[in-house]
Amino acid sequence: MGDFIFMKKIQSRALSEVYEVLQNSEELVINNIPTKFIDFIKNNKDNTYIPNIYFSNKNWTDSLSNEAKTVMALIYRDFLASDEERKKIIENEKVELEQFKKEKYEKYNPDKIFKVKKESMSQVELENNANNNQLVDISKEKWYKKILRKLFYLLKS
């Protein structure tokens, strides 16, 4: 529950930064963004958070959080970019996503993980494991002990 509140706070701060940027944008830019979307940002921003964005600074975008940059990128892609540019952006996003999935699969490939483990075991170890296949006594933890253990864990954190 605490993580959810923390993430909501981060998101609302990012929306505050986005709202600040939109307030300092030209009319032409704001007119291309639907009023419902601007109202969504306005209603969900953190009213107590004051963004420290100095627009006079050449690199003012560096002061934005990553979440705010993501929202700004979505605004650009969905509302400000031309149709041709939007298609290119979406295609690039698909390529990056596929590359990310491929890297993740190669890193966590279950076939590869288990293959390495089998190769590392010698033939003698495999024979010993085959000969030592016996039943293991597994004692179950009583239900009330599980509840108490979880309760103590929650109280500690």
- Taking the alpha carbons of the first and last residues, their distance comes to 13 Å
Overall shape: flat
Structural class: mainly alpha
* CA radius of gyration: 27 Å
Low-confidence sequence ranges: none
Strand content: under 5%
In which range does the helix fraction lie?
over 70%
Q: What is the arithmetic mean of pLDDT?
A: 81
The run of helices and strands is: HHHHHHHH
Number of helices: 8
Task: Note the quaternary state here.
Answer: single chain
For the sheet with most strands, the description reads:
none
Q: How many beta strands in the DSSP annotation?
A: 0
Outline the structure in words.
This protein has a domain at 2-80. It is built from eight helices and no strands. Helix 1 packs across helix 3 (35-44) and helix 1 (2-23) crosses helix 4 (66-80). It is flat and about 75 Å long. Helix content is 71%, strand content 0%. By secondary structure, the chain is an all-alpha fold. The protein has helices at residues 2-23, 27-31, 35-44, 66-80, 83-107, 110-120, 123-131, 143-156.
